[in-house]
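Technical note accompanying the year-one report. For the benefit of new consortium partners, we illustrate the data format agreed upon in the data management plan: each record pairs a sequence with a C-alpha cell string. No post-processing was applied to the example shown here.
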Amino acid sequence: MKRIHQFTLATVVTTFALLNPSGTAGAATDSDYEKLLHSIYKELIETNTTYSRGDTVLAARKMAKRLLDAGYPPADVQVLENAPRKGNLVARLRSPEPVAGPILLLAHIDVVEANPEDWEIDPFTLNEDDEYFYGRGTVDDKDEAAIHIANLIRWKQEGYVPNRDIIVALTADEEGGPDNGVQFLLANHRDLVDADLVINEGGGGAILDGKYVSNAVQTAEKVYQSYTLEITDSGGHSSRPKPFNPIYDLAAALTNIGQYQFPIELNETTRASIAATAQTQAPELAALSMGILAEPPEPASISYFESIPGHNATIRTTCVATMLEAGHAQNALPQRATATVNCRILPGNEPEDVRQTLIGLVNNEKISVTPVQPATPSDPSPLTDEIMTPIREITESMWPGVVVVPAMSTGATDGLFFFYAGIPVYGVSGIFGDAKDSRAHGRDERLLKRSLYEGAAFLDQLTRRLTSPVDAAKAGTRL
C-alpha cells in the first residue's frame, strides 16, 4: 500500500484496540473487524442499487441479515419499502438507560447510474489495486453505509452499552427519485428515525499534494429551487416574421439573469468555514479569503471569490439557466419558448423573494416565472461544542495539524429533510480523498483503501464520544 500520510493502517488497528481497552470477552479482533468491514463493503458495491435497474430492497435485506446474525432482535432491524425495488434499513442499538435522545447515523445505499461500457472495470464489482477500491458507490455512499453496519456489529460483539440509542438508517432514492427514502421514513415512520442529531455524509477530508489538510463538517445546505420561464405567441409562417418573437424575448430575459449577481451573504457556517480554510492557505490567499469577512468585504476578495465557481457559490444565492426549449418546426414562427432556471438559495432566504428578483430581471410581463416544485427550506445546524469539540479532538489525535472546517454544501443530501424537520445534521466522516481527483458520480469511482479504515476508526470514536457508555454492571445487561 502506498504511503500517503504518517497515519498508517497499523495505526488504525491500534486506534481500534484503544477503543476497547478492557478486552471484552468475545469481542472481535481488529483483524476480524477489518475483514468484516471489507466483506460488507464488497457485498454492497456488488449489489446494483441504481434507480433504473438496481434493488435497494435486496441491499437492505442483506444488511439486515448481517445484523440479525450478529444478535440484534428482529424488532430493532426493519426493512421498510414503499415501491418495488426500493427499500430502507432502519436498525437500533438500544440504551438500557438513555439520558438523551437517539443519535442517527445516516447513509444512502442507492447509487447513480453507471454504464459498464464507459468504465475501465465493471462498476458493480469491487475492484482493488494496491492503493484504491474501485466501483460505483465506493465513495458515494456505500463506504459510510458499510462502516455503520460494521460498527453496529462490532458494538454488539463487544457488549458496548451506550447512554442513548444509536440508530442506523440506510436509505433509498437520494440519487434517483422520489419513490422512497428519507422523505418516506419521516412521513410514515418518524418514530423509527427521530433523533436529537444526525451524522450524515457531506463532509470528509481533503488531501492536497499528498498531505492531509482539512476535515470538513457540513452543517448547512443551500436550498434547491428551479423555476420555469415561459412565453407564448400565436406563431405563424416563418416567411413572414413578426416584430414579436418568444425566442428573442426569452433570450433577452436569460441574458439579464446571467449577468446578475445576488448579494454577498454569510452565515455562521460560511464565516467559520472561510476562517478555518484560511489556516490551510498560503499567506496571500489567506488574506484574500479573510478579506471577504470584512464589513464591507474587500474588493480584491470579492474578485477572488467570484473567479472560482465553488467559492462564489458559498457566498451568495446563485441562479443559472440549465434547460431551454422553443419552437415546433423549422418553417414556423415559435408559439412557445420555455427555459428552466435552477437556483441554489442560501439558507434563511425565501424562494418567493428569489422568484420576485427573477421577475424583476426578466422585466417582461409576457414571461411567467413559476416554481417547478415547492422548495424544502432548512436552517443551518448550530456549531455547538457537543459536536465540534469531539470532532476536533479526534481529528487532531488521528491526523495532527489537520484543520476542522465547517462547510455549507452548495448541492443537496438527504440531510436536507432532517434540517427541515428541525433535527440538526452534521455531515462528517473522517474519510479523506484527493481534492483534485473527485470521482463521485463519475467514471471509475474510487476510494483510497486506507481511507475506508481511517473513516471507520473516526466514526467509531465519534459515535462513542456522542454516546458515552453507561456503567455496564449498573445497567445489569449486555447488549
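Partners are asked to follow this layout when depositing records. The two ends are 37 Å apart (CA to CA).
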